[in-house]
Design a protein that fits this description.
It is a single chain. With about 725 residues, the protein is mostly beta strands. The chain folds into 8 domains: about 10-70 and about 85-100, no CATH class; about 110-170, Complement Module, domain 1 (Ribbon); about 170-230, Complement Module, domain 1, CATH 2.10.70; about 240-290, no CATH class; about 295-365, Complement Module, domain 1; about 380-470, Sandwich (Immunoglobulin-like); about 490-565, Immunoglobulins (Immunoglobulin-like), CATH 2.60.40; about 585-710, Sandwich (Immunoglobulin-like), CATH 2.60.40. Helices cover about 0% and strands about 45% of the residues. The protein is built from 3 helices and 66 strands. The strands form 23 sheets. Strands 59, 60, 64, 65 and 66 form a 5-stranded antiparallel sheet that branches. Strands 7-9-11-12 form a 4-stranded antiparallel sheet, with no helix packed on it. Strands 14-16-18-19 form a 4-stranded antiparallel sheet, with no helix packed on it. A hairpin with an 8-residue loop joins strand 49 (about 445-450) and strand 50 (about 460-470). It is elongated, with a radius of gyration of 75 Å.
Length: about 725
């Protein structure tokens, strides 16, 4: 329309590419007139920087308007970030507008409260509020797990939310004021659990084996301080006589170490030494060390030889000295003995053996050894004589002391008890005789000639030695055992070969009878040395025996031991040719008969009497009855029994004779009763032996049956 009333609004438009300015005008009253509020124009279309935008925005190109298609880069003050960072002027319908309405938003950067212990996984350096970024602990100085941090804004303050970060700072390289410390590994930082070792110059050692980096909250600290402390070493006052059981070469104050004496030059018991510090001075406490230096091999005469030969000799060790080329040392054996607390020296062995050790103060030298030339040797059971000569004269006279000795060769114990006899005598000159007397027979002796060089020392060098056995002599009497009458055996113990080798035994047996002076039997016999018993055969009853036994050596018979005994009598022996007696000249009228008798030999003892026994029994037991020792003389009650008719003493029966049986005579209290007619009789003869209250009769009796006696019987 052409006219507008006051108060009306008119919206304007322009051709393409332009825009009205202002876009709306208003008809307003100005006094009596109506006028437009502004004079509009068509202006080329542009984007305008709005004054209502964030005042913190900064534009790369300062200007108020920007043509379509223009881009504007935005910036913000520190701590903020444009969003978006670039805007563009674009068409929106018929208008030119900005692509976005920009604003300064707070941002998180790698400054502020960004943890110094982490580094971002992103290459970006700024992050808007609400953005998160993955971070890892800086490995060179920290350690921990990866975490996410977020940019946050609180009360207008923008900062990182680092609650998830758990990085622990590593230990920095140890700081020490001890300039002697030399660390084995040089680096700037160490992780918890890492240990650091260090070394120190000679004479010092680390105050502790190592120090370790340990976690303490979110930090790491060292477990100790590296320092060097003074130590005891194998130098200083370390005893040269010992070696340590430990391969360790340095020891701290207060430490102990076990030591042993160096076996090649010292001896003693193991001990403990301690590293100590006194007034700032570190040294070993060696009070427990008791090593004794051994004796070194002597540097004496170069011709000396040592057995055993070794650089050093321990306490009480001895070495035997000899000389080359036929020379003799002035000492043959020397012994190392302790001298004071820590040293040893050489002593003469022979002197020490008697408990009075003498320190050797002069060199042992070599001299020509005398030669002893043995001559004739005379030996008896108790004496040894050796003739000798000595050469060369210089050694035999003056420079050497020579002595001879005869000594028992062998142990003192044993079956032959011998005293330790030692006979000594000094020898002088160039020849002589060694005489040893009062010796044991059949005994081995060592005849030794010793020499001592120099002459002031006791002889100890053997110049001559020979084993000599003294001659045999007759042995001692054997030890006999009591006679065993049950076995009729003589027994004795074997003689020991103390006076000679026993080659046998001789027995001399003599038999006699007291009751018969004509009886004598003598027997001599020998048995070998292994026999120790003899069965005496024949064995004579009622006989006195004397048996001697002697040992026999090559020197002859020795002293005799003897048995003296008497054998018991035995039953009289009935000759085998007499089995029965014959009766003749039987006279029934006179009641007599002739009984022939003869004397018996006294083989088993003296015959004392002959008993005439008559039996009228007819039951066959008369032989047993007549053996009874209590037979009674004849009386009327025994007329039909057995009775003792007569006893004839043996001395009255010296030859054959006839005894009249039944003659009514009385003989030594016994009645020889007449024989009655019409009866059968049996006559017995009993022989009785009696000696020293022992009486024995013959084991059997001689029987003479008379048969039936009648008046018609004739002899």
């Amino acid at each position: 329309m052409q006219f507008y009333a006051p108060g009306e609004l008119v919206t304007l438009s322009c051709p393409a590419g332009y825009r009205p300015s202002p876009p709306v005008i208003k008809c307003v009253r100005n006094g009596s007139q109506a006028v437009w509020s502004e004079t509009p124009t068509c202006q080329q279309e542009k984007c305008e920087i709005s004054r209502t935008w964030d005042s913190g925005l900064q534009f790369a190109h300062e200007g108020q308007f920007y043509a379509l298609g223009d881009s504007v880069t935005l910036n913000c003050s520190e701590g903020y970030w444009p969003s978006p960072p670039v805007i563009k002027c674009v068409r929106n319908g018929s208008q030119a507008v900005w692509s976005e309405i920009p604003a300064c938003r707070g941002v998180c950067t790698m400054a502020g409260n960004w943890p110094s212990s982490v580094s971002a996984a992103s290459a970006r350096t700024e992050f808007a509020v609400g953005e998160s970024v993955l971070v890892t602990c800086r490995p060179e100085q920290y350690e921990g797990s990866p975490a996410w941090v977020r940019c946050t804004e609180t009360a207008g303050h923008v900062e990182w939310d680092t609650r998830n970060v758990s990085c622990v700072e590593k230990c920095k390289a140890p700081d020490t004021r001890d300039s002697r410390v030399r660390f084995a590994l040089e680096q700037q930082f160490y992780s918890p659990g890492d240990s650091v070792t260090w070394s120190c110059p000679a004479g010092y050692q680390p105050s502790q084996p190592d120090i370790r980096c340990t976690r303490q909250g979110s930090q790491s600290v060292w477990s100790g301080t590296a320092a060097c402390t003074e130590v005891c070493t194998r130098a200083g006052n370390w005893p040269p006589s010992v070696s340590a059981a430990s391969p360790q070469t340095e020891f701290a104050v207060g430490e102990w170490v076990q030591v042993t004496c160096r076996p090649e030059q010292y001896e003693g018991s193991p001990a403990w030494v301690q590293c100590t510090e006194t007034a700032g001075h570190v040294e070993w406490d060696t009070r427990n060390v008791s090593c004794v230096e051994k004796c070194p091999r002597p540097q004496w005469d170069p011709r000396l030889r040592f057995v055993p030969d070794q650089p050093f000799y321990g306490q009480n060790e001895h070495t035997t000295l000899s000389c080359s080329g036929g020379f003799q040392p002035s000492l043959s054996v020397i012994r190392c003995v302790r001298w004071g607390q820590t040293r040893s020296h050489w002593n003469a062995w022979s002197v020490c053996a008697w408990g009075a050790c003498r320190r050797i103060t002069e060199n042992v030298t070599c001299a020509v050894t005398p030669r002893i030339i043995p001559g004739s040797l005379e030996i008896s059971p108790t004496t040894i004589k050796l003739h000798w000569t000595c050469e060369p004269p210089k050694s035999c006279q003056g420079s050497w002391k020579i002595r001879a000795q005869c000594q028992l060769d062998g142990p003192l114990s044993g079956p032959c008890q011998r005293q330790r006899l030692t006979r000594e005598q000094p020898l002088q000159g160039l020849d002589g005789t060694v005489t040893c007397s009062s010796l044991h027979p059949f005994t081995s002796y060592r005849v030794t000639i010793f020499g001592g060089y120099p002459a002031t020392r006791s002889p100890s060098t053997v110049l001559y030695r020979q084993r000599v056995t003294t001659s045999e002599t007759a042995p001692d009497k054997p030890e006999i055992e009591p006679l065993d009458l049950s076995t009729k055996t003589l027994k004795w113990k074997q003689l020991l070969p103390c006076k000679g080798a026993i080659i046998g035994y001789q027995l001399n047996i003599t038999a006699r009878r007291e009751y018969n002076s004509d009886f004598l039997e003598v027997k001599a016999l020998r048995v070998n040395q292994s026999v120790t018993k003899y069965l005496l055969q024949p064995w004579r009853h009622g006989t006195n025996y004397t048996v001697t036994i002697q040992g026999l050596t090559a020197a002859g018979l020795g002293q005799a031991s003897h048995w003296d005994f008497e054998t018991d009598i035995s039953e009289p022996d009935i000759p085998t040719n007499i089995t029965a007696l014959s009766i003749y000249s039987i006279s029934p009228s006179s009641g007599t008969a002739l009984l022939p008798l003869q004397p018996f030999p006294e083989l088993h003892g003296p015959i004392r009497e002959y008993q005439i026994i008559v039996s009228a029994m007819q039951n066959g037991s008369e032989a047993d009855t007549c053996r009874s020792p209590g037979l009674q003389p004849f009386n009327s009650s025994l007329e039909r029994d057995v009775y003792l008719a007569a006893v004839l003493p043996a001395h009255n029966l010296t030859g054959p004779t006839d005894f009249v049986l039944g003659n009514g005579a009385r003989h030594y209290g016994y009645y020889n009763a007449p024989l009655r007619p019409h009866r059968n009789y049996t006559a017995f003869v009993r022989v009785v032996s009696r000696w020293k209250q022992v009486a024995l009769d013959s084991p059997g009796t001689l029987t003479a049956p008379l048969g039936f006696v009648s008046s018609q019987a004739r002899s």
